[in-house]
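Slide 14.
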Amino acid sequence: MNKIANELEAKIKSHNANIAVAGLGYVGLPLALRFAEENFRTFGIDIDESKISRLQSGNSYIKTIASECIKKVVHSTFIPTSDFSVIKDCHAILICVPTPLGKYREPDLSFVTNTTKQISPYIDSGKLVILESTSFPGTTDEIVKPILEESGHKEGEDIFIVFSPEREDPGNKSFSIGNIPKVIGGCSKVSGQLATALYGEIVKEVVPVSSAKVAEATKILENTYRSVNIALVNELKTVFTKMGIDIWEVIRAASTKPFGFQPFYPGPGLGGHCIPIDPFYLTWKAREYGLSTRFIELAGEVNISMPEYVVSRVAEALNDEKKTIKDSKIFVLGMAYKKDIDDMRESPSVEIIHLLLEKGASVVYNDPFIPRIPKIRKYKIELESVELNEKILADSDCVLILTDHSQYDYQWLADNAHLIIDTRNTVHKLAKTKAHIITA
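Slide 15: predicted structure.
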């Protein structure tokens, strides 16, 4: 390493390096707090003033992050701000912004590009920039690096650029930043070494790889692996249902095999910030090389079709009751994309409600963590969570379980509802049920 890199590494190892985290969502906020907990002076940057205001008051806006964790470090080692100029005084800048899909499922890298442009004026000699936002292989080298080098700095010589994919799993109490291995790929060898030193101060294990592209491909592989396997069990669910076979029982039995099998579970569709999105980044990039990723795209199509399958099962169940979806009262349980979190990103619940409303159903919902459905680009749904009680069950033509929150009393539901469509295998497994149970 050259003199500039050696000096930066010394600051990192002595915890005298100042850290900036751009983007304080489900990835950026826990990362910023982790650095602050390890006594790095950490600036948390976000353009959302309401987030900054809440953080400055020591209040969390993410269910899985306790306000007490923020109060312990705010105004001492953690400084929330919307002012990008604080980067002038920072040595490592971590970019943790969304990478959604566009209207036609093409990559939308506007957040990455705009954030890189916002930090660029403050990048000078001796700074380490790390992208954590998931994207296709080549993003760091082809988009982030050129923007940062426009000012005349040279990557690997006086500035250092790295990709290190986030591995957040909201609601998972077994794993957090500290005990999840961190993959690190630099645009140059020295950049990778500096990022390895930095993350080595806050995580138990770092996994250096040969390049930023390899690190980017690693994250894409992780999420594509899950997408493909979930698509498999989703498709098997539709087949086995027609055969009168319980897919959940099949998975339980197959899971007893001590080798060569890993269980994945079906559901109403994919949600979250990774699995429904990341594989499409790879399929898009593959076209640049004249390649078609048919297997991955087929898995995406299967998973995307699940909300329509659920609605078809609702229609069948109501038809058996001599009712139609039109004018039926449907009570939806759960808006979050997974249990016990307040995260609605890409939640299939929104698409399912949209489809039900299009078919003329009257829909209400309950979610203990999501009091109202926020504005979403693709949909115009304005609903607030209603109280879960015996009256709402009695007034509903069916109860549709889309998220299996632990707070729900499923035995009580089975005892008080007339018809339940269960997409999560929650009520179906109860020993005694008064309600008519349909899996979907």
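Speaker note: The first strand starts at residue 19 and ends at 22.
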